[in-house]
UniProtKB/TrEMBL annotation:
Gene Ontology CC: cytoplasm
Coiled-coil parts of chain: none
Broad class of enzyme this protein falls into: transferase
Record-stated family: Belongs to the EPSP synthase family. MurA subfamily.
Domain of life, per lineage: Bacteria
Protein name: UDP-N-acetylglucosamine 1-carboxyvinyltransferase
Gene Ontology molecular function: any one: UDP-N-acetylglucosamine 1-carboxyvinyltransferase activity
Annotated ranges, domain Enolpyruvate transferase: 7-222
Length: 227
């Protein structure tokens, strides 16, 4: 077993720069697909999943600029948005399944590869899909892909997760932001990255409330604007 042996007794001083959190960055960056206007993120960590997500967002039709020295990421609409997330990118990033939510919310349709090409039961993707169905989405899973549509838009609903899932909670928060009506989420995850996502979306015009009893209430709005 590895150990760290630390001898105290000496005064410490100085400054350190703390990198941004990958777990917080991924869902926040993915939520930018809900925006029509350019959005800029700072203190973005330079890790593999971030670079994979950048490639995915480009495939979905957005223009992306990442200043690695300043750790600033800029995302803007380029041409026509796309709604297909291929296996070639999704196979290396489990969090990629989160793009299903903003694509459905914004465009009413999406075709997204299962993360890592896994079967639907291998990981809790079913929690994402079951909750999206309650918001009115029509979903079909076949040959490793999730085909989803919401021709009439997503509608607020009461959702209670059978088990606590950070990813599924993030997914439904993102989906419910532009849904019509109110979405109440019970047994939700309330990890720091969830709180960061909520704070970011609220600053951008969303109406989301939460409490320590694992309840989140999302009141749908018509649009979001970047801060």
């Amino acid at each position: 077993m590895q150990k760290l042996l630390i001898k105290g007794g000496k005064k410490l001083s100085g400054e350190v720069v703390i990198s941004g959190s990958k777990n917080a960055s991924l869902p926040i960056i993915i939520s930018s697909l809900l925006f029509d206007n350019p959005v800029q993120f700072e203190n973005v960590p330079k890790v593999k999943d971030i670079y994979t997500l950048i490639n995915l967002i480009k495939v979905l039709g957005r223009e992306v600029e990442f200043d690695e020295n300043k750790e600033i990421l800029k995302i803007s609409k380029k041409n026509k948005d796309k709604y297909f997330a291929p296996y070639s990118i999704m196979k290396t990033m489990r969090a990629g399944v989160l793009v299903l939510a903003p694509l459905l919310a914004k465009f009413g349709k999406a075709r997204v590869s299962l993360p890592g090409g896994c079967s639907i039961g291998a990981r809790p993707v079913n929690l994402h899909l079951d909750a999206l169905k309650k918001l009115g989405a029509k979903i079909n899973v076949k040959n490793g892909y999730i085909d989803a549509s919401a021709p009439k838009g997503l509608l607020g609903a009461n959702i209670k997760f059978s088990s606590i899932s950070v990813g599924a909670t993030e997914s439904i928060i993102i989906a419910a932001v532009l849904a019509k009506g109110i979405t109440k989420i019970s047994n939700a995850a309330i990890e720091p990255e969830i709180i960061d996502l909520i704070k970011f979306l609220n600053k951008c015009g969303a109406d989301i409330k939460y409490n320590s009893k694992r309840k989140i209430i999302v009141k749908g709005v018509n649009f979001l604007y970047p801060i």
